[in-house]
Amino acid sequence: MALLIGGLATSHIPAIGGAIHKGKQNEPYWKPFFDGFPPIHQWLGKVKPDVVVVFYNDHGLNFFLDKMPTFAVGAAASYSNADEGWGIPTSAPVAGCPELSWHIINQLIAKEFDIVTCQEMLVDHACTLPLKLFWPNDEVAPVQIVPIDINTVQFPLPTAKRVYKLGKAVGEAIQSWASDKRVAVMATGGLSHQLEGERAGFINKAFDLQFLDSMETNPEWATQFSDLELVENAGTQGVELLMWLAMRAALTAGGSGVRKVHSNYHIPISNTATGVLALETV
Ligand code: DHB
Ligand code: FE
User: Fold this and answer.
1) Ligand 1 nearest atom to the CA of residue 57, by list position
2) Label partner for 193 (CA 20 to 30 A): which of 83, 201, 243, 254?
3) Using CA atoms, how far apart are residues 249 and 170, in angstroms rounded to an integer?
4) In total, how many domains does the chain have?
């Protein structure tokens, strides 16, 4: 069976793409953010995942407000990127893993998740930038991906409880995949931020740190909150932390525990409190 080796999570702010493109990683504004990654690069160099299941939210590139799936799973052999308006360079296409996609899709449908299956899927900054951050020296990340989109852009959103169940079911699907591949799960988005309205610029450090701590010690902690409570605590775009919850839930499959490889928290990049995390299953 496939081996679920661990989980990765990072913020996915578009400006990161510009900073990488312009080589600004060591400038004082950017360094505290990029400094969160080298220990995770070392770990990835050791554990070498073959496939990464990416929980992310599409921001209007592949799905727009007229058609908004709650959960959508990619089943393509390759995923192309386009700039959806941030002025950042377009990334080269990333390889898919249709075998694992279809296994996950079959398992999710069997467990009564009504997902959308996408044999063609464009991926935005929320998928491409994290791959660049975790594999900075590769033109294209040396992995196959299975992108799983969770709607956090148009209400009604899935509840934290539902997202946790989805993540756990994805973890169980990975562990029941008849393959010798090494699989990691990845979450992108968060932590607290709000880009519009009266609370634009809202950041909640106390909540973020408790959430980060829960990733290690109490994975179901965030499931106590309704989506509106998550918005209140983390901001309208801070609800992207639902992706982190799905990633963490996947790692509980089969009764696995986790060991923290590394984490980093830095305020601000753009309007966002940034978080980075790697967890290894034990
Ligand atoms: C920003 C953050 C996001 O999560 C996003 O998708 C777009 C922009 C920002 O902080 O600028
Ligand atoms: Fe976002």
Assistant:
1) 6
2) 83
3) 9
4) 1
The SS3 call for residue 238 is: helix
pLDDT tens column, 172-227 = 999 999 999 999 999 999 999 999 999 999 999 999 999 999 999 999 999 999 99
Which of 83, 127, 193, 196 should be mutated for ligand 1, with most atoms under 8 A from CB?
Answer: 193
Give 33 Cα–ligand 1 centroid separation in angstroms: 15
96: left (phi over 0), alpha (psi -120 to 50) or beta: beta
Query: What's the domain range around 199?
Result: 3-281
CATH number for the domain that contains residue 251: 3.40.830.10
Mutation probe of ligand 1 site: the residue of 272, 274, 276 with most atoms within 8 A of C-beta: 272
- The ligand 1 atom nearest the CA atom of 269: 10
pLDDT tens profile 96-145: 999 999 999 999 999 999 999 999 999 999 999 999 999 999 999 999 99
Cβ-Cβ contacts under 8 Å for 19 (sequence gap 6 or more)? 25, 27, 30, 34
Catalytic residue positions, numbered: 125, 193
What's the angle, vertex CA 171, arms to CA 234 and CA 156, rounded to 5?
Answer: 40
